[in-house]
């Protein structure tokens, strides 16, 4: 980062690939000349392709997708002629670690899951099912491979789906947190999911199985909300590093009224002692003015797609 009285310059480096952005054309030329004098860089012009990510400009802003990467993946699996699937996961199927025949060559499953994991950088719609399949890489079976190929069938619907980052959006954070209690049929651990928007642009998301078993749905919700609170704190630090001002508190939506009530209640009760640590984290962020909790109906809970498989109409 480099900041002067009127200019802010950010430079991102990954091995020998460099992305440079600033609000001053003159500053870009200064930085490029300096880098070229030291490292003999090659200027490829405005960013169009970076580490498998395609960047295109439109009237509204920037579109980030992995269309070529996705098409290559469909082609490599030999499914260019397949019938598309309406969703990435069949909600009637439950995956287990010990059901079905073991794959004779698990390396194909490992490679496919690895490539799908990288695809979730722009395809948030497959995050949940990829997270679910990732827990079976040590011993993949036929049902796991069939479900992984269903994702490919789903991707064929629209390989060019991506993320739109509008150039004229409001500088306001909105976040959605959700969990699905005891989702995992093998370990009975819950799954946390959250979305974070800057205006209408999606800037952070996660679908992750919780590290321990939650003995109640409220505990699972609290763990998901605590994870989101930590993410929002990190985002605030990132904004500070970028010299970018976003007003607080950040609007945070949860579909569990009981969880919101305990978070706002300064008095601990005996029945909440088992979630005391998560209560402390969330309540501290409320007191600090980082977040402001609101209830959202389950039908409007965007993070729901990160915690369970949904039927086509809901998805």
In short:
With 315 residues, the protein is α+β, with helices and mostly antiparallel strands. The protein is 33% helix and 21% strand.
Question: Within the CATH hierarchy, at the fold level, what is the topology of the largest domain?
Answer: Nucleotidyltransferase, domain 5
What is the CA-CA span between the terminal residues? 40 Å
Order of helices and strands: EEEHEEEHHHHEEEEHEHHE
Structural class: alpha+beta
CATH architecture descriptor text of the largest domain: 2-Layer Sandwich
Q: Indicate the radius of gyration in whole angstroms.
A: 22 Å
Mean pLDDT: 90
Largest sheet: 5 strands, mixed
β-strand percent reads 15-25%
Number of helices: 8
How many domains make up the coordinates?
3
CATH class placement of the largest domain: Alpha Beta
Shape, please?
globular
Largest sheet strand order: 10-9-8-11-12
Percent range for helical residues?
25-40%
Low-confidence parts lasting 5 or more residues at pLDDT below 50? none
For CATH, the homologous superfamily of the largest domain is named as Ribonuclease H-like superfamily/Ribonuclease H
């Amino acid at each position: 980062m480099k900041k002067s009285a009127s200019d802010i310059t950010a430079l991102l480096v990954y091995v020998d690939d460099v992305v440079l952005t600033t609000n001053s054309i003159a500053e870009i030329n200064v930085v490029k000349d300096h880098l070229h004098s030291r490292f003999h860089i090659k200027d490829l012009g405005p960013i169009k392709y970076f580490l498998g990510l395609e960047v295109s400009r439109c009237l509204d802003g920037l579109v980030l997708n992995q269309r070529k990467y996705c098409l290559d993946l469909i082609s490599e699996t030999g499914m260019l002629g397949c019938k598309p699937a309406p969703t990435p996961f069949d909600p009637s199927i439950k995956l287990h670690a010990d059901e079905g025949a073991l794959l004779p060559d698990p390396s194909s499953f490992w490679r496919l899951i690895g490539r799908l994991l990288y695809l979730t950088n722009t395809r948030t719609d497959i995050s949940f099912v990829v997270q679910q399949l990732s827990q079976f890489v040590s011993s993949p079976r036929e049902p796991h491979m069939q479900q992984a190929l269903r994702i490919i069938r789903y991707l064929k619907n629209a390989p060019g789906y991506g993320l739109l980052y509008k150039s004229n959006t409001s500088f306001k954070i909105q976040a959605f947190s959700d969990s699905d209690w005891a989702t995992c049929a093998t370990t009975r651990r819950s799954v946390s999911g959250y979305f974070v928007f800057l205006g209408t642009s999606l800037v952070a998301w996660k679908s992750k199985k919780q590290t321990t078993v939650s003995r109640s749905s409220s505990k699972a919700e609290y763990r998901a909300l605590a994870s989101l609170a930590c993410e929002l704190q990190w985002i605030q630090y990132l904004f500070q590093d970028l010299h970018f001002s976003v007003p607080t508190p950040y609007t945070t939506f949860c579909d569990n009224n009981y969880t919101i009530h305990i978070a706002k209640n300064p008095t601990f009760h005996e029945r909440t002692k088992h979630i005391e640590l998560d209560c402390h984290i969330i309540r501290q962020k409320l007191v600090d003015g980082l977040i402001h909790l609101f209830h959202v109906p389950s039908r409007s809970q965007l993070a729901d797609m990160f915690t369970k498989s949904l039927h086509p109409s809901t998805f």
